[in-house]
Amino acid sequence: MKTILIHGSAGFLGSHLCEELLARGCRVLAADRGEAPPGALAHLLDNPRFRYLGHGPASAPALDEIYHLAGPSDPPEPPALAALAGRTGARLLRARAGGFEGEPATPEAGPRAARLFHAYGPGMPAAEGGFLSRAILQALAGAPVTLPGPGTRPLALCFVDDLVAGLIALMAAPAGFGGPVDLGSPSPVAAQELARMIIRLAGSDSPILPGPRPAGPDPAPPDLTLARALGWAPKVPLETGLRRTLDHQVWLSRQPDRPPAGLGR
């Protein structure tokens, strides 16, 4: 059984990665900023192969792999994690886990490094999902869906399950594979078309309104040359992923102990 440390486990992508690795029979050690397990990991705490370590392991456990899912302001490779990988012989993968719609991917350096582009899916934080999160909440409430500008900006959205599969494939790559590896969708969709799809899937009659024009140029799509060499490509169709995201939000809004106004887990 592999023992895997996930640093940045409490985030959107990190919690999904924890779930998938547990489903594959791994032992998962989760670390993040808080000492107490965050809500995104609460449903995993009863699994005997899952343990939340707070800021990280106090000693050097036997490890096979380390995932470092960095936020936009985090260092690309914390010295403590690099030292831990050196002591244990564990493979180390570095990725920017903050690649939500509207936020540019940040380059990483060295082997087993990933740039993540525009993740979405169940549990996507409302505060960080940009237009997509806002449009889902607006459509479900029957409120006007506000576009970024006139709605012509292309958005290349990648379902979270596909990104998790890409990270696992990259971890399995040989050390000399190269990088960084872009993981994301090569098929952008205009924001206006995306809004129409969300409204239809939500069964809503929300109108679509133009909003403030976003600053900066249109985001560049990922270059999947290296990802395809790993045998990876996105598999979840956009409509399927949006439906799963909407269904999760509807379910979440019906939970008595959950506020209905966010896309959290």
How is this structure best described in words?
The structure is a single chain. The chain has 265 residues and is of the alpha/beta class. It has 7 helices and 13 strands. It has helices spanning 12-23, 79-88, 130-141, 160-171, 191-202, 225-229, 238-253; strands spanning 3-7, 27-31, 50-52, 65-70, 91-96, 113-116, 119-120, 145-146, 154-155, 158-159, 181-183, 189-190, 208-209. It is globular. The strands form 4 sheets. It has a 7-stranded parallel beta sheet. Helices cover 30% and strands 17% of the residues. Helix 1 (12-23) crosses helix 4, helix 3 packs parallel to helix 5 (191-202) and helix 5 crosses helix 7. The model is unreliable at 98-107 (pLDDT under 50).
Features:
265 residues, alpha/beta, two-stranded parallel sheet, 7 helices
Low-confidence parts, pLDDT < 50 over ≥5 residues?
98-107
Please report which band the strand proportion falls in: under 5%, 5-15%, 15-25%, 25-35%, 35-45% or over 45%: 15-25%
**Counting H and I runs of at least 4 residues, what is the number of helices?**
7
What's the overall geometry? globular
Percent helix range:
25-40%
Neighbour order of strands in the largest sheet: 3-2-1-4-5-6-11
Give the overall average pLDDT: 85
Number of strand segments: 13
In N-to-C order, the SSE pattern is EHEEEHEEEHEEEHEEHEHH
Largest sheet: 7 strands, parallel
